[in-house]
């Protein structure tokens, strides 16, 4: 099992920055995908940024150039640096660690952290 603890959300004005952290504990040896999702009321959870164990990174188009995902393997922690925040970025943000292989998928989720961007 993998446990994830998120931190770093909050209230910020448009144009401001926040950094989210997701610290993992437990058996993460099989994890090969780490991502940040966000969700607003009535909508599905949406992938914002992801990084694989091989170092591949991808971003949702609307956050490219503003958000940066990174990881610290020594601390088993993934970060999401969010700059130039917009009101549309307001959501609950969830980190996800996953084992994704042909025929196998295990997902672990953080508890979620609220990010609110005021105009």
Q: How would you describe the overall organization of this protein?
A:
The protein is mostly beta strands and 119 residues long. Helices cover 0% and strands 60% of the residues. It has no helices and 11 strands. Strands 2, 4, 5, 6, 9, 10 and 11 form a 7-stranded mixed sheet that branches. The chain is globular and about 45 Å long.
Proportion of residues in β-strands: over 45%
Order of helices and strands: EEEEEEEEEEE
Oligomer: single chain
Whole-number mean pLDDT: 96
Write the SSE topology:
Layout lengths: L1 E6 L2 E4 L4 E9 L6 E7 L6 E7 L4 E3 L7 E6 L4 E6 L8 E11 L2 E6 L3 E6 L1
Parallel strand pairs: 2-11
Antiparallel strand pairs: 1-3, 3-8, 4-5, 4-9, 5-6, 7-8, 9-10, 9-11
Key phrases:
about 120 residues, single chain, about 60% strand, mainly beta, globular
Short note summarizing the structure:
By secondary structure, the protein is an all-beta fold.
């Amino acid at each position: 099992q993998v446990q994830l603890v998120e931190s770093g959300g909050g209230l910020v004005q448009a144009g401001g920055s926040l950094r989210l952290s997701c610290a993992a504990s437990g058996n993460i040896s099989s994890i090969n995908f780490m991502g940040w999702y966000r969700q607003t009321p009535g909508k599905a959870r949406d992938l914002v940024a992801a990084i694989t164990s091989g170092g591949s990174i991808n971003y949702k188009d609307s956050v490219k150039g503003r958000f940066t995902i990174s990881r610290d393997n020594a601390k088993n922690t993934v970060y999401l640096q969010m700059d130039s925040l917009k009101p549309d970025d307001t959501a609950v943000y969830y980190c996800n660690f996953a084992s994704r292989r042909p025929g196998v998928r295990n997902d672990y989720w953080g508890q979620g952290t609220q990010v609110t961007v005021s105009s």
